[in-house]
Structures are given as C-alpha cells and as structure tokens.
Amino acid sequence: MAEANPAFSASTVSTHSKGPLGNNMLSAVESILDPAALILSLWLVSAGIEGELRPPYLILALIVFSITFPGTSRLQFSIKRLVFDVLYSWFWVVLLLLLLGVATGYMNEFSSEALITWLWVAPLSQIGAHLALRATAPYLLMLQGPPQRAIIVGMNDQGAALAGRIHETRYSKIELSGFFDDRSPNRLNQAANSQLLGRLRELPGFVKENRIQYIYLSLPMASQPRILHVLDELKDTTASIYFVPDMFITDLIQGRSGTVCGTPVISVCESPFTGSNGIIKRASDIVLSLLILALISPLLLIIALAIKLDSPGPVIFKQRRYGLDGEEILVYKFRSMRVCEDGESIRQAQKGDSRITRIGAFLRKSSLDELPQFVNVLQGRMSIVGPRPHAVAHNEIYRNLIKGYMIRHKVKPGITGWAQVNGYRGETRTLDKMQARIDHDLDYLRNWSLRLDLHIILKTIMVVFRDRAAY
C-alpha cells in the first residue's frame, strides 16, 4: 500500500455532524443560514438607526460569525421546537457577547437603541430564514437531480428501523429500494418482508445494474466473515457504504461517524468532498483554473497553431473517460497523435510510438497536451487534483483485475494526482504498476486536505520538468 506523506496525513476516522445524507446543497445552506440571518439583521438595524454601517458593527459581525458558524440543521424540527431551539441558542449567544462587551468595554462603541432592537430582530430573522428554507427545500432538492437510491443489507430490527426513518424523513433525497438478506423468510423482520430484493450473492450485480448510490450494512458483529466478503464483492462499484451497527474496521476510505435520518452509522467508503469540504474543493478548482487559464492563454494559442501546422486533424482531441461515480465524461486534450482512438480497444502510448506527431512528442513529454483540461475543471467534470482518468476501454480491463479499482471514481478525476507526483505517470506496462497507481489514488482519498492538493500542484510543476516517464 502506498504511503502518504505524514505531513499531509489526516486522521483515518473523523466525525461528520451533518451525517452522510448526500443533500450537499441543503447542508451548505443550513450551515450558513443562522450566521447570515444574524449578521444581515445586525447590519440592517445599524444602517436603519445610525444611518450608516460603522466599523464596530463589522467587527461584531465577525465575532457573531465565528460563534455561530456552522449553523444548526433544523429542517426536521417541528415549528414549536424550531422556535424554542432558536431562542435557546440566541440566549447563550447574547450572554457570551454581553460578557465580552462588558469585559472589554467595547459595548460603549454601539448605540443602545441599535443593540436592543437587534436583540429581538435577530431571532425573528433566524426563524423567518428557517421557515423560508422549508418552503424552498423541495425546489433545492430538485436542483440536485433525481433521488439517490439506497439498499439495506440485513433485514433485522435495526435495518427495519432505519428503513422506517428514511421513509418518514422529510427533505431527504434517499430513495430506499429494499433489502438483501440470506436468511429464510420466517427469520426475517415481517414488517419489511415485502421489500426483500434478494440474497447477498445477488447484491453486487443489483448495485451495478440499478446504479445504487448508498448501501447500509445492518449486520451483527458476529457476521464478520460475511461482512468482509460483502465489502470485497462491492469494490467494483462506486456506491457509498455505511455500517449501521457500532463496529470498527481498519481499512476505511474517509471513515466518518454520522447519522442517516437519526440513525447512527459509520462510513466505510465515502468521498472526502462532502459538506464544507466539497465547497472548498470546488471553489479552489474554479479560482485556480480561471487564474491559470488567464496566464496561459497565449501559450494555448501558440500550441493550437503549432498542431495545425504540424499535421492534419483537429486541434482538440476528445476522449471518453470515467468521471465521478463512474459516469462517462468527455475529456479534452491537445491532439498529440495522428489518430484519435476512442473505441473498445485502445493501445497505450509507448516510447517511439509511430502514432505520435512531432509536436505531439513534445506536448506529451512536457504534459502541455493536458492544458485544455482546465476547461473540463470549470465545467465541473474534473478537478485540478484527483485520480487521473483512464480511457473507458482501460477501465473495463483493470476493474476486473484490481480489487477496489472503481473506488477511485468516488471523486472527480484530476489533471494531476498523488500517483503522478510519486513516479506513476505515463505508461503502465505491468499490472503491478497499475496496482501501485491505484494504491496511491486510494491513499489520496483517505488523506485529502487542501494543503495536500497545493502540495501536489507544486510538486507536479517540478515533476514535469524532470520526468521522462510520459510518451
């Protein structure tokens, strides 16, 4: 197994307060809702009473944000509980701000009328914001696409309870397809018996054919051999897997504890880019891609002209690759060969390959042929850092040869990656080399951080100037 740089390693098991529900947009809105309502109400009260927004109110806004971010999820609360929870939380925020103000003497910088007005306007704005979110939540869910399909492995009381909570939970995009279990019908939970989909040996095929996104393992700890067998069989899928029982496993991909519709779970295989991490990753991709494209735009025009003059054919080569969750995407590259192969069988480029053009040899050696993929990043198909996308034909070969190969598709493919900066760039002649590349990709998923991404980007620049592995 590839070793990640200890300086950039994250803890194997962390906590995730929102839980692996997959409602990233709603979670992001909820995390900013309370701070935004409090700060906007403060600014409006200040501007309305004092006629301007003075610096002390800006400083107070920063303090309020640091105290209240991220906001509390209250979508599942009753109206009565929502009001009580907002008022209760606001009481403690006000008490803390009051103590700080008295201790520092900073309260003298504010208008008494403005503070007293904000004291009752702030919680009302919070309640109003949460009610507005409830009204718009169905539309936000629609923007995230179709429901995410789930299955439960183990038709026991705990599995049936989870199913009941999924069905009862409002504003959830999880659509439960049913259960898998090997036991005879008379030993199963009768309330959920009608939802039995099949036996465990049929599970991997069903997951792949029906594009299941979530798998919840509700199996007793005594079933460890059966659990390990199920996990092994599911490594050829991109489904996110969670344990419902309270148990420990050592080989986790972004292992987190959380809840699904109020039921505690532990993720076994999950994307690192959930919740705020997803926002940070996407924002960094957009900012860096725009900056890089602005800087290299003259170089892109020169390369395009050189390709046109060197050999007949298109400037941009489009090839089908597997992207996030194993979905096919089109990846852009500067054409470096006389042929544009994208069929069932694709031969990897080799040293001295006759298909490579004169300008193409230079582009591939310097990795300049990859530059159009910054457009793919802006489109949302790729990320700057992530597992490198392989041709669809190569994927279909290696997914059957390497266990866990498809797990790398839990994230968007990258222009560069952890494997590439550790010597696994270019042609992979042996299965061992491809295995090592996949090990590094999975290591990246386990240990992701923004700092690690920046480290890989900087290391990529150095590798490109001295690497001789790419043909």
UniProtKB/TrEMBL annotation:
InterPro entries referenced in this protein's UniProt entry, alphabetically: Bact_transf, EPS_sugar_tfrase, NAD(P)-bd_dom_sf, Undecaprenyl-P_gluc_Ptfrase
Coiled-coil regions listed in the entry: none
- Give GO MF terms, alphabetically: undecaprenyl-phosphate glucose phosphotransferase activity
Which Pfam families does this entry report, sorted A to Z?
Bac_transf, CoA_binding_3
List where in the cell it is found.
Membrane
- This protein's record includes keyword Membrane: yes
Q: Tell me which residues make up the Bacterial sugar transferase domain.
A: 281-465
Q: How does it sit in the membrane?
A: Multi-pass membrane protein
Transmembrane ranges?
A: 57-75, 82-103, 115-133, 286-307
UniProt entry keywords in alphabetical sequence: Membrane, Transferase, Transmembrane, Transmembrane helix
Q: Does the keyword Magnesium apply?
A: no
GO cellular component terms, A-Z:
membrane
Query: Could you state one GO biological process linked to this protein?
Result: colanic acid biosynthetic process
The record's similarity note reads:
Belongs to the bacterial sugar transferase family.
Q: Which PANTHER family match?
A: COLANIC BIOSYNTHESIS UDP-GLUCOSE LIPID CARRIER TRANSFERASE, UDP-GLUCOSE:UNDECAPRENYL-PHOSPHATE GLUCOSE-1-PHOSPHATE TRANSFERASE
Q: What is this protein called?
A: Undecaprenyl-phosphate glucose phosphotransferase
Supply the source organism for this entry: Nitrosospira lacus
